Amino acid sequence: MKKTILYTFTLFCPALLQAQTNTDVLLLDMSGKKTEIILSNPQNITNHLGYDSQPHFHRSQPIMYYSSANADGKMDIRTYNLSTKQTADFTTTPENEFSPTLTPDGKHISAIIQRENGQQDLGMYNIDSKAVTVLIDNLTVGYHAWIDNKNLLLFILAEDGHELQHYNLDTKQNKVLAKSIGRSLHKIPGQNAMSFIDKSDKEQWLIKRYDTKTGAITTIAPTINQREDITWTSKGTLLSSDGAKLYSFSPAKDKNWQEVKVQGNPALLKGITRMAVNQANNKLAVVISE
């Protein structure tokens, strides 16, 4: 347990995050036909000194959720309204909250809750009342993605490294699927499948597909230069970055990653890490260095 808690603090402790890097969230317009992607009009929508990261769009509302450091260095969840261009606090708690994610029912935001003792639980906040429910408190959860209302894909900090686990909320059973994984966990649009990053080969990281019905794990594509942050468009195209440029990959037609041109001020794109696409497929959020 001591080893796990120490590792957890290294991964998420706000003081360490601020010491390492300050980040902002950049919002871009996205257009194009079929698998073509055109990005334009990059705008810094957080423009706040400190940590702003882990963007996530609501499926049906013009709201983006993200994790943000407050004046005391604690991580809260904040919202950005794409229609009004207004920012607001979603949580203001003594704990740190990371990885805000809309639940499948659309009524809650699930998040990693880091306690003062270093424990990391998975909880969810009612969007209207902000009431919190703890979902998982017996595992050290680093990242998560919803398979359906009762099943989750989890990045677990274990004694011997990072594990990919399939967790059922009803039975409380967890199954280890892989080890040495990255932080990007996503549902693949239109499929009964999830994607994750396999980092077991130190020379070549791979984006892999987990079939949630059969349990089969197959390879989709190599990552870009050992970059673990990806996202999916609603049309089934992958987006990633080498840190300075953005690239797309359509598993149905591409053999290699294709550079995506950015119209406007591409100089804003520096130190790119996490990213997210909205359901309408017309907005891309990317995390950049300040």
TrEMBL record:
Q: Does the keyword DNA-binding apply?
A: no
Keyword tags: Signal
The name of this protein is S9 family peptidase
Is Signal one of the keywords UniProt gives this record?
A: yes
Question: Which residues constitute the signal peptide according to the record?
Answer: 1-19
| SUPFAM superfamilies according to UniProt | Tricorn protease N-terminal domain
Membrane-crossing segments per the record = none
Which PANTHER family does its entry note?
A: PROTEIN TOLB HOMOLOG
Would you identify the family this protein belongs to, as annotated? Belongs to the TolB family.
